[in-house]
């Protein structure tokens, strides 16, 4: 039995964050939610994170910039990143930024869970 | 006094023979006189000689009996000697004596010594004389010659001078002294020559004199001496000869002769000679030239010229003659005429020659030359010498043959002229122009064929008739004027006139005065039918009118810029576009003044660059009409160059595109609004998706749980929290939809305000309470600095406050407190400010956040995160209330959002 996988959820809307957390916890993941991009570094430093789910828009920062940064940083580049957005053209933008996965809002619960599962398992 | 026996005899008695001989033959005269009567007691040979007497004649006789002539002079002297007993010495006494039978004048030095007796009384005199005649004479001679010399010297026109061996002057004669303005008593030994010599001559003079002194030779030199009176220098010829005394050089004696005049005269002469020589040379040259000229004339003359002597011998002959005579100059010179040309015997030419030799001048007698067969005019002139004797004849013959044939040629020329005349007539006839020629009375001289045809007359009919007979319609017309002007000598041109005689036709006419030796003898009228040209010009004009109309309709004007004349020509349509009256042309400056000021530079540059590059780049520019209307014109053009590439003109069009631009603006707006609409839709859908995602998420989660945990009850906690969340999201959704709706209303200008009076402070309290209900942990402080009632849409203002509060909460990550203040920033306004201590807003974003959600250009379609449309709507609402909304913030320091509303009244 694997150690519980830890997922970091970043969204500037706390409601979305909460909702995803509930969803994922139900599924047995350990979830940390943050609505601040600045906190990411801290969280990643302190915890093992197996997946980052990130909204493309975060207040104060471009989600894509953060994605690029994480992917370039050797200590974090191994962590798969899934990006979500309601923006119609976001998919291309996010994947170009280095995101491993993209899902648009509103999403289907099964859909997101299966994608998450693939990403997390692949990492293992 | 009778005294003792002479002591001489005493001497003689006891002296001896020797003494006696000595006495007798002494070279001096010795005479002893005794007593007061001076009785000659003794006299020696010489004395006797001097007297010219024998001893016996003198002894015992008184001296003055012997020489009575001496009594007067000598007696007192002798007496004195006797008396005083003192000797007397007489020098150079003149004495006459006889020697060798001749009478001499001599000179003697005498001593008269007193003779003393034993008691010391004088008893006699012994006179001893020495002949010094020679010396005296010599000296006298010298003196004479000296005085002669002096007087001669003084008389001489020269200076006479003497120097010592040091070349210092010791004597200068009167003339010299005069010349130098020196007093006769002047001591010349102190005189310095050099003062008087011309400075340029000094060195030379000294050299010569020193040299001569060294060599002890004579010298001659020329120098200039300054006249003491005038100060002018004059030339002198100086000659010096060495002087000796006892064979020792003692200096020079010399003369200085004033040769100044001579020298001047010499110079003058030299000049004259030089001039004369030049004159002679010039004359010589001239003479040579003349001779050459004459020679050339002689030689180049085509006329045979021969000079014969009185024997018909050829003295001189020119080339032309030689050609006829044949042979060389050497071959004929000196030969008689008939020897050279025997065929001339008894011919007129020969006879004429003989006549001339006899003195007759032959002129212009034409004869046929036997030698050449040509005709000659003969001139033979006898040449006479100074004694009027004929020594030669000059024969000039002129070949006259030409004259004879020239008459023939003249005949030929006339014939040619006739044919030329008829040729010209034919030319005139064939001309396309109507030509009619009139005399000065305006009577027809001739008309050409074209004229005949056009006027339907024949030449015969009109020749001689008056102009107004044949063309009565011309009377008092401008053509008539033209004719009259032509008659006064002026050429007149009338173009494109209607031909009166032929309606429907147009002509160009020339009225040309016919001049003969400067006088007007008639008029030529030349007309050309230009009907076609005129008609096509008219057609062109019409076409232009049409074009102008078309331009006007199209609001299209055309222009032309003539580079050389610097003139702008515009079509009427262009003037109309600019709304200024049409003119002949318009200046560049005027054109610039019609442009919209901000566009002037651009237009000038565009024109300049077109000029330089040869290509006219079309451009737009605004103009201002006199009434102030601004129009936009589209300018197009073309640069026209000549073969060398120089710009001669620019042509182009200007089209009024103001209305098109307006359409474009409208279209832009439409597309803008279309774009906005699509932006709006994009944005709206994005916004809505967020709460929907939450709702969906929760619902799906619940369904999944319920499905998967069929047996178990759904955890009530999970259920409740999910429901609560869902409700929250629905509220959010509702709110969002409301904002979107508002946005739509704002866009379409349909946002209506329901204005009522209410207390603002109360509203703020209510709103804060609502917010706190959903965010219980939030700390919101409220400060009522002022109480106010406002007239506004209560719900909308509430919306604004909620929006600000929500934003403040959202951007305070640490749940910091929020301060709300109601205050009065200025009179008649109430302000509500919401202060948070959150992350603050970058200066560069502070403007952006009030704008619509989506950025228009530059960035990709990423929404600026966070503020949504709420702030935009809030701004719109406040502005609709005549209020304002502002932000004060610094990144990391939190933000203060403030909105103001105008007041109706206040309450404290």
Biggest interface in this structure?
A: A-B, 30 and 34 residues
Structural class of chain B: alpha+beta
* Number of helical regions of chain A: 5
Q: Sketch the topology of chain A as an H/E string, one letter per element.
A: EHEHEEEHEHEH
The general outline of chain A is globular
Task: Provide the β-strand percentage band of chain A.
Answer: 15-25%
What does this structure look like?
The complex is a heterodimer of chains A (124) and B (908). Chain A has helices at 14-26, 40-46, 63-72, 90-96, 109-123; strands at residues 6-10, 30-34, 51-55, 57-58, 61-62, 81-85, 101-104. By secondary structure, chain A is of the alpha/beta class. Chain A has a single domain, classed as 3-Layer(aba) Sandwich (Rossmann fold). The longest helix of chain A has 15 residues, at 109-123. Chain A is globular, with a radius of gyration of 13 Å. The mean pLDDT of chain A is 86. With 908 residues, chain B is an alpha+beta fold. Chain B is built from 29 helices and 33 strands. The longest helix of chain B has 51 residues, at 658-708. The interface between A and B is medium-sized, with 30 and 34 residues.
List the topology elements.
The complex is a heterodimer of chains A (124) and B (908).
Chain A: E1 6-10, H1 14-26, E2 30-34, H2 40-46, E3 51-55, E4 57-58, E5 61-62, H3 63-72, E6 81-85, H4 90-96, E7 101-104, H5 109-123
Parallel strand pairs in A: 1-2, 1-3, 3-6, 6-7
Antiparallel strand pairs in A: 4-5
Chain B: H1 7-15, H2 17-25, E1 29-34, E2 39-43, H3 45-51, H4 55-58, H5 63-66, H6 71-84, E3 88-99, E4 102-116, E5 122-131, H7 133-155, E6 159-163, E7 169-172, H8 174-179, H9 199-215, E8 219-226, E9 233-245, E10 248-258, H10 260-300, E11 305-309, E12 314-317, H11 319-325, H12 329-332, H13 337-340, H14 348-357, E13 362-368, E14 375-384, E15 390-399, H15 401-430, E16 434-439, E17 444-447, H16 449-455, H17 459-462, H18 467-470, H19 478-487, E18 492-498, E19 506-516, E20 519-529, H20 531-553, E21 556-562, E22 567-570, H21 572-578, H22 588-594, H23 597-613, E23 619-624, E24 630-641, E25 647-656, H24 658-708, H25 716-747, E26 755-759, H26 760-774, E27 780-784, E28 787-793, H27 794-810, E29 818-823, E30 829-836, H28 843-846, H29 870-880, E31 884-889, E32 895-902, E33 905-907
Parallel strand pairs in B: 27-29
Antiparallel strand pairs in B: 1-2, 1-5, 3-4, 4-5, 6-7, 6-10, 8-9, 9-10, 11-12, 11-15, 13-14, 14-15, 16-17, 16-20, 18-19, 19-20, 21-22, 21-25, 23-24, 24-25, 26-28, 28-33, 29-30, 30-32, 31-32
Helix pairs in contact in B: 20-21, 24-25, 25-29, 26-27, 27-29
């Amino acid at each position: 039995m694997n150690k519980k996988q830890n997922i970091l959820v970043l969204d500037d809307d706390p409601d979305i964050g909460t909702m995803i957390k509930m969803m994922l916890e139900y599924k047995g993941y350990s979830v940390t939610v943050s609505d601040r991009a600045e906190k990411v570094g801290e969280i990643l430093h302190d915890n093992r994170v197996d997946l980052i789910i990130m909204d493309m828009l975060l207040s104060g920062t471009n989600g894509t910039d953060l994605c690029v940064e994480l992917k370039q940083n050797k200590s974090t580049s191994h962590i798969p990143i899934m990006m979500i957005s309601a923006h119609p053209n976001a998919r291309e933008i996010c994947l170009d930024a280095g995101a491993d996965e993209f899902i648009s809002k509103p999403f289907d619960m099964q859909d997101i869970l299966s994608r998450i599962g693939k990403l997390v398992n692949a990492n293992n | 006094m009778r005294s003792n026996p002479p002591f001489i005899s005493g001497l003689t008695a006891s002296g001896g023979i020797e003494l006696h001989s000595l006495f007798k033959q002494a070279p001096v005269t010795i005479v002893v006189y005794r007593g007061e009567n001076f009785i000659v007691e003794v006299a020696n040979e010489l004395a006797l000689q001097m007297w010219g007497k024998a001893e016996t004649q003198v002894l015992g006789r008184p001296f003055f009996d012997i020489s009575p002539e001496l009594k007067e002079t000598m007696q007192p002297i002798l007496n004195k000697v006797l008396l005083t007993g003192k000797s007397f010495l007489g020098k150079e006494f003149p004495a006459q004596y006889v020697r060798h039978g001749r009478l001499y004048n001599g000179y003697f030095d005498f001593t008269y010594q007193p003779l003393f007796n034993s008691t010391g009384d004088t008893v006699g005199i012994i006179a001893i004389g020495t002949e010094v005649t020679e010396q005296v004479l010599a000296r006298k001679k010298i003196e004479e010659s000296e005085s002669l010399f002096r007087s001669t010297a003084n008389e001489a026109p020269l200076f006479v001078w003497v120097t010592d061996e040091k070349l210092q002057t010791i004597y200068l004669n009167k003339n010299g002294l005069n010349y130098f303005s020196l007093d006769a008593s002047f001591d010349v030994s102190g005189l310095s020559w050099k003062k008087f010599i011309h400075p340029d001559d000094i060195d030379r003079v000294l050299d010569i004199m020193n040299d001569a002194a060294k060599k002890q030779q004579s010298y001659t030199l020329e120098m200039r001496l300054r006249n003491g009176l005038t100060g002018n220098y004059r030339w002198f010829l100086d000659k010096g000869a060495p002087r000796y005394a006892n064979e020792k050089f003692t200096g020079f004696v010399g003369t200085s002769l004033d040769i100044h005049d001579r020298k001047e005269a010499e110079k003058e002469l030299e000049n004259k000679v030089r001039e004369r020589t030049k004159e002679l040379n010039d004359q010589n040259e001239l003479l040579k030239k003349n001779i050459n000229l004459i020679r050339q004339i002689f030689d180049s003359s085509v006329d045979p010229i021969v000079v014969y002597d009185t024997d018909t011998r050829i003295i001189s002959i020119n080339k032309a003659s030689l050609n006829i005579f044949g042979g060389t100059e050497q071959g004929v010179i000196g030969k008689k005429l008939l020897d050279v040309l025997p065929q001339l015997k008894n011919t007129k030419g020969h006879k004429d020659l003989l006549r001339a030799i006899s003195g007759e001048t032959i002129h212009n007698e034409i004869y046929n030359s036997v030698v050449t067969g040509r005709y000659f005019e003969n001139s033979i002139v006898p040449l006479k010498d100074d004694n009027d004797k004929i020594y030669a004849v000059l024969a000039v013959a002129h070949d006259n043959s030409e004259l004879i044939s020239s008459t023939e040629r003249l005949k030929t020329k006339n014939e040619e002229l006739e044919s030329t005349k008829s040729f010209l007539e034919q030319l005139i006839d064939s001309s396309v122009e109507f030509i009619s020629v009139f005399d000065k009375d305006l009577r027809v001289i001739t008309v050409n064929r074209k004229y005949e045809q056009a006027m339907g007359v024949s030449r015969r009919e009109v020749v001689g008739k008056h102009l107004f007979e044949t063309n009565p319609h011309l009377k008092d017309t401008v053509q008539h004027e033209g004719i009259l002007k032509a008659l006064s000598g002026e050429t007149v041109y009338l173009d494109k006139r209607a031909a009166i005689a032929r309606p429907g036709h147009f002509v160009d006419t020339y009225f040309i005065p016919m001049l003969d030796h400067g006088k007007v003898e008639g008029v030529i009228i030349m007309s050309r039918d230009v009907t076609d040209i005129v008609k096509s010009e008219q057609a062109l004009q019409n076409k232009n009118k049409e074009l102008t109309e078309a331009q006007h309709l199209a609001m299209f004007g055309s222009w032309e810029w003539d580079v050389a004349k610097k003139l702008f020509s515009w079509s009427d349509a262009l003037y109309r576009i600019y709304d200024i009256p049409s003119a002949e042309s318009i200046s560049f400056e005027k054109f610039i003044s019609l442009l919209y000021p901000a566009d002037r530079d651009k237009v000038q540059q565009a024109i300049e660059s077109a000029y330089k590059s040869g290509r006219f780049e079309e451009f737009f520019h605004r103009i201002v009409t006199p009434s102030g209307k601004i129009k936009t014109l589209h300018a197009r053009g073309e640069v026209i160059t000549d073969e060398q590439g120089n710009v001669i003109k620019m042509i182009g069009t200007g089209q009024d595109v103001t209305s098109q631009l307006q359409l474009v603006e409208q279209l832009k707006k439409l597309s803008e609004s279309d774009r906005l609409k699509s932006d709006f839709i994009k944005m709206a859908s994005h916004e809505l998706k967020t709460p929907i995602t939450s709702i969906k998420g929760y619902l799906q989660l619940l369904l999944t749980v319920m499905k998967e945990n069929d047996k178990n009850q759904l955890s009530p906690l999970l259920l409740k929290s999910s429901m609560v969340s869902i409700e929250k999201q629905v509220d959010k959704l509702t709110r969002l939809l409301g904002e979107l709706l508002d946005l739509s209303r704002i866009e379409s200008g349909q946002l209506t305000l329901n204005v009522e009076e209410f207390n603002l402070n109360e509203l703020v309290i209510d709103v804060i309470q609502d917010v706190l209900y959903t965010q219980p942990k939030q700390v919101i402080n409220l400060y009522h600095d002022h109480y106010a009632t406002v007239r506004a849409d209560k719900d909308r203002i509430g919306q604004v406050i909620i929006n600000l509060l929500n934003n403040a909460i959202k951007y305070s990550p640490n749940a910091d407190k929020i301060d709300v203040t109601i205050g009065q920033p200025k009179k008649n306004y109430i302000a509500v400010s919401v202060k948070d201590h959150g992350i603050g807003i970058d200066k560069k974003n502070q403007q952006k956040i009030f704008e619509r959600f989506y950025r228009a250009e530059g960035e990709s379609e990423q929404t600026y995160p966070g503020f949504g449309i709420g702030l935009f709507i809030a701004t719109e609402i406040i502005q609709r209330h005549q209020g304002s909304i502002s932000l004060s913030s610094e990144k990391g320091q939190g933000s203060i959002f403030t909105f103001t509303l105008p007041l109706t009244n206040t309450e404290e």
